[in-house]
């Protein structure tokens, strides 16, 4: 009802709106409200599932992990590597504590088609420069009784890597706490 009032106020006269336009406006409003409700629902339930699994409600960066035996550390890094490669990344370099992966991305065809329909030139420009390379790197530095961890790359992958390393998290004493 409120949406209909807003529609009628936005017009010079309420008589100029047809029934089809009003129904269309109501449908668009309902779709938007439904999308917002779903986003809130999934955010809440994802948070609850994380808490039920014993994980923090919010992702926190893992800046240090425990000192592990070499074979266990290699197993942890192998599982991390499998997670990254399963998302289409290829290993570029793997060495003493430094693991780097890259993924070539192409322009999104749906966005390209929309831009081509809306205006031809932006569509062409997007097709030419829309791709790129994503890089993610995981670095481990031996800091005595723990390993310092540095993860650089897309935020969604950082969270996945941090959740994989979370069981091995090390909390240094306050005097050496990492920022």
What is the element layout, followed by pairings?
Layout: H1 2-10, H2 19-52, E1 64-66, H3 70-86, E2 90-95, E3 98-105, H4 109-118, H5 120-129, E4 132-142, E5 146-152, H6 155-165
Antiparallel strand pairs: 1-5, 2-3, 3-4, 4-5
Helix pairs in contact: 3-6, 4-5
Protein described:
It is a single chain. Helix 4 (about 110-120) packs antiparallel against helix 5 (about 120-130). Strands 1-5-4-3-2 form a 5-stranded antiparallel beta sheet, covered by helices on one side. It has 2 domains: about 1-50, no CATH class; about 65-100 and about 135-175, TATA-Binding Protein, CATH 3.30.310. The protein is about 50% helix and about 20% strand. It has 6 helices and 5 strands. Strand 4 (about 130-140) and strand 5 form a beta hairpin. The chain has helices at about 1-10, 20-50, 70-85, 110-120, 120-130, 155-165, and strands spanning about 65, 90-95, 100-105, 130-140, 145-150. With about 180 residues, the chain is an alpha+beta fold. The longest helix is centred in the first third of the chain and has 34 residues, at about 20-50.
């Amino acid at each position: 009802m409120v949406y209909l009032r807003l529609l009628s106020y936005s017009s010079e006269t309420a008589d100029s709106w047809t029934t089809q336009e009003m129904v269309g406006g109501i449908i668009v409003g309902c779709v938007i409200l439904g999308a917002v409700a779903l986003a809130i629902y999934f955010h809440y339930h994802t948070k609850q599932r994380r808490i039920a699994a014993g994980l923090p409600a919010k992702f926190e960066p893992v800046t240090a992990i425990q000192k592990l035996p070499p074979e266990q550390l290699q197993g942890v890094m192998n599982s991390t590597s499998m997670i990254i490669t399963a998302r289409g990344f290829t290993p570029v370099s793997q060495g003493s504590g430094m693991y780097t992966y890259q993924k070539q991305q192409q322009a999104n065809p749906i966005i390209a088609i929309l831009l081509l329909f809306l205006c031809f030139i932006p569509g062409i420009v997007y097709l030419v420069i829309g791709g790129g390379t994503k890089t993610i790197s995981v670095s481990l530095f031996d800091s005595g009784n723990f390993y310092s961890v540095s993860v650089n790359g897309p935020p969604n992958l950082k969270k996945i890597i941090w959740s994989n390393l979370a069981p091995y998290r090390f909390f240094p004493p306050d005097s050496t706490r990492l920022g």
